[in-house]
Design a protein that fits this description.
The protein has 232 residues and is mainly α. 76% of the residues lie in helices and 0% in strands.
Length: 232
C-alpha cells in the first residue's frame, strides 16, 4: 500500500515539475537594450549630473536578463537539442547567436567599475567567442549555397555590430591596439555587408517575417562612431 502511495505521489510530482520555456537566441537583444541604455545613462550622469542609480539599475537588470536567457539557452541544448541545432544551422536565425558573446562583452562593461579583474575575464571570454563564431559563420558563406531571401540585416549582428562592440569594450578596458584591429575588421565588414544587403533590399526586398530586422540596419554606423570615440 505504501509503495502505491509513494508511486502516486512521485507521478504527481513529475506532473507538477516546473519546465523552463523555450526562447530564441534573439531574446538576448533584451540584454543588449538594457545594458546599452545603462551605459548611455552612465554617460548622461557624468555630463548632465543625472541620478546615477538609474543607470546602475538598468545594468543590474541587464545582468539578470543575461543570466536568465543564458539559462534558457543552455536548457534548450539539454532538453530540446533538435530545436537548438535547427536554430544554430538556420541561415537567418543563427545570426542572432552572435548576441550571446556580445552580451558577455556588455556584462564586462557593466561590471568594470566594480571589479576590473572580473570585467577583463568576461571581456576576453566574450571577445574570443565573438571572433571564433564570426570566423565560423564567414567560412560557411564561402562553402555553402545561400538563397537570396536569407540575405537580411541580421548579417550585421555576426560580422559587424558585435565586432564593433568588441572594439568599444577593448578601448574602454585599455586594450587600445587590439580595439583598433577590431574596429578595422568591423568597419570593413560593414562596408562589404552593407553593399550586399542594400542590393538585396533594392532588388529582392525582405520577406514579411524579416522586415522588422530593418532596425538592425541602423546599428553599425552608431556603434562604429562610438567605438572610434572610445578608442581615440
Amino acid at each position: 500500500m505504501n509503495k502505491i502511495v509513494d508511486k502516486t505521489a512521485q507521478q504527481q510530482f513529475q506532473k507538477q515539475k516546473i519546465t523552463l520555456p523555450i526562447a530564441p537566441a534573439s531574446f538576448f537583444a533584451m540584454t543588449l537594450g538594457l545594458a546599452e541604455t545603462g551605459n548611455a545613462w552612465r554617460n548622461a550622469t557624468s555630463l548632465w549630473h543625472l541620478p546615477s542609480y538609474i543607470g546602475e539599475v538598468l545594468e543590474g537588470l541587464a545582468l539578470l536578463s543575461f543570466l536568465w536567457w543564458l539559462l534558457l539557452y543552455c536548457n534548450k541544448w539539454i532538453q530540446h537539442r533538435k530545436l537548438a541545432e535547427t536554430e544554430f544551422n538556420d541561415p537567418v536565425q543563427s545570426s542572432f547567436l552572435a548576441l550571446i558573446p556580445e552580451s558577455i562583452i556588455l556584462m564586462a562593461i557593466a561590471i568594470h567599475i566594480y571589479s576590473q579583474s572580473i570585467a577583463i575575464s568576461l571581456f576576453w571570454i566574450g571577445s574570443v567567442l565573438n571572433l571564433i563564431y564570426g570566423a565560423y559563420k564567414l567560412s560557411g558563406l564561402w562553402t555553402q549555397e545561400r538563397q537570396t531571401e536569407h540575405t537580411t540585416p541580421s548579417l550585421f549582428l555576426t560580422f559587424t555590430a558585435s565586432i564593433l562592440v568588441n572594439a568599444l569594450a577593448a578601448g574602454l578596458l585599455g586594450y587600445t591596439n587590439y580595439g583598433y584591429v577590431l574596429l578595422g575588421i568591423g568597419t570593413i565588414s560593414w562596408l562589404i555587408m552593407d553593399s550586399v544587403i542594400t542590393q538585396q533590399l533594392t532588388v529582392g526586398g525582405l520577406g514579411a517575417k524579416t522586415r522588422n530586422f530593418m532596425g538592425i540596419y541602423m546599428a553599425p554606423a552608431v556603434i562604429l562612431f562610438v567605438a572610434y570615440q572610445v578608442l581615440c
